[in-house]
Amino acid sequence: MFRAMAKLLIVEDDESVRTLAARALERDGHMVTIATDGAQGLELIQRAAGGYDLVVSDIRMPEMDGIEMATAAAKQFPAMKIMLMTGYADQRERAEELNGIIRDVVQKPFTLAEIRARVGRVLN
């Protein structure tokens, strides 16, 4: 289990999902920053110079989706770990084309235990 405090960025336009994920991960001792869409997420990643241990992003969001954001972020910070979440099967297939960039795709809805376990696995 990943015990050290990790710096995480959650990018999610749905407030209830964002809050659920942030709370679950903060409970594991991680430092969580949140963004409400891909454009804001990318801005935070650039401002932190890619300094997040993991970015957890929804795929389907207004303005800039998670895949566009992940692609742009990975170009600038190839070592940064990115994990996507989606409730849509077709979006999941789009994410699979980003092999090497995306570490995991979590199916929504997820439980607190599930998001904590999946994040722990990617961080290890």
Number of helices: 5
Based on CA atoms alone, the radius of gyration comes out at 13 Å
String of helices and strands: EHEHEHEHEH
Question: How much helix, percentage-wise, in residues?
Answer: 40-55%
Instruction: Tell me the name of the CATH class.
Output: Alpha Beta
Number of domains: 1
**What is the mean predicted local confidence, pLDDT?**
92
Strand order in the largest sheet: 2-1-3-4-5
List the uncertain runs: none
State the CATH architecture: 3-Layer(aba) Sandwich
Instruction: Decide which structural class fits the backbone.
Output: alpha/beta
CATH topology: Rossmann fold
Question: Sheet with the most strands?
Answer: 5 strands, parallel
Span from first to last CA? 7 Å
CATH superfamily: Response regulator
Strand content: 15-25%
- Any idea what the shape is? globular
Total DSSP E strands: 5
Question: What features would you describe in this structure?
Answer:
α1 crosses α5 (112-123) and α2 (38-47) packs parallel to α3. A five-stranded parallel sheet has the order 2-1-3-4-5, sandwiched between helices. By secondary structure, it is α/β, with parallel strands linked by helices. The chain is built from five helices and five strands, in the order βαβαβαβαβα. The model has no long low-confidence stretch (mean pLDDT 92). The chain is globular and about 30 Å long. It has one domain (7-110): Response regulator (Rossmann fold, 3-Layer(aba) Sandwich), CATH 3.40.50.
Could you provide a short overview of the structure?
This protein is of the alpha/beta class and 124 residues long. The protein has helices at residues 15-27, 38-47, 66-76, 89-96, 112-123; strands at residues 7-11, 31-35, 54-58, 82-86, 102-107.
